[in-house]
Amino acid sequence: MSGRARTHWGDGRRPQGVAAAKPLPRRAVLADDVYEAIKALIMDHEIEPDARVSIDGLARQLRVSPTPVREALARLESAELVAKEPLRGYRATPLLTKEELEDLYQFRLLIEPWAAARAAERVAAGDKEQLRAEMAATEVPQSDSYAEYKALTAHDTRLHVLIAELAGSPQVRHAFERTHCHLHIFRLHYHRTIGAETIKEHQAIVDAITQGDKDAAEHAMRRHLESSCYDRLLPLYDAGGRRRHDERS
Fold first, then answer.
1. Collapsing DSSP states into helix, strand and coil, what is residue 52?
2. Which of 34, 141, 147, 247 could bridge across to 68 with cysteines, CB 3.0–4.6 Å?
3. pTM given for the model
């Protein structure tokens, strides 16, 4: 794991600047650490797509008991990063196929430009503060590992969910959240240039919403989704719809 930030497996220490009041129980810290560690292995393809996942092997690798590994895999199953096979255990899910990627973006193009326009129509002073704070809290990743892209993935999800909330449609928000789209998109491919482009496009969406310009908000969201799909992700597949392996990093 060279080049990746070192992980502490639930040693009880708190990061600088975090208050000391009521620390989490060790078991909760350990479970979260193991979950994040296994997710990073999947996102970085150290656990390859469609590969068998050994609970005992991961427990030895992470120097923990099998129990938090099982708990982590159950959580990862809900995000569709692993799948449980009867009598065979867990397997990492395959990467999105070209058809699945296109279907995902067709779905997003149906609901998210509308949500951005609706958010611009309904935006209030407090909503503008939330949107601006979200943009201020994100930075362009400095390397191409999931450890660096983890924060951007979280920002990407938070912003799109927030826009769905501001549109005033719980159904749209829940439908979007169920896709777990950002995890699967970043698992497919990430690169520093994608981070910079994504943040720039997000800023255009936020500017349009905070200005109350519904047409500009709809256009900015549509342009963001089309750029992500057609300019950055679909070119990763060959003419036969197969994922080009040499494009991963």
1. strand
2. 34
3. 0.78
* Euclidean distance between CA atoms 5 and 12, whole angstroms: 18
Per-residue exposure over 107-144, b if at least 16 CB sit within 10 Å of its own CB, e if not: ebeebbbbbbbbbbeebeeebbebbeebbeebeebeeb
20-55 in b/e burial notation, b at 16+ Cβ within 10 A?
eeeeeeeeebbbbbbbebbbbbbbbbebebeeebee
Q: Which domains occur in the chain, in start order?
A: 26-92 (1.10.10.10), 98-247 (1.20.120.530)
Q: Are 105 and 115 in contact (CB under 8 A)?
A: no
The whole-angstrom separation of Cα 161 and Cα 29 is 26
Place of tokens 């009041």: 21
Residues 121-150 have pLDDT tens digits of 999 999 999 999 999 998 888 777 777 778
Which of 39, 50, 100, 24 has the alpha carbon at shortest distance from 74? Answer: 39
* 2-54 confidence digits (pLDDT tens): 444 433 333 444 444 444 445 545 566 688 899 999 999 998 899 999 999 99
Number of helices (H), then strands (E), in the chain: 10, 3
**Residue-wise DSSP of 83-127:** EEETTTEEEEPPPPPHHHHHHHHHHHHHHHHHHHHHHHHH--HHH
The vertex-160 CA angle with 183 and 116, nearest 5°, equals: 145
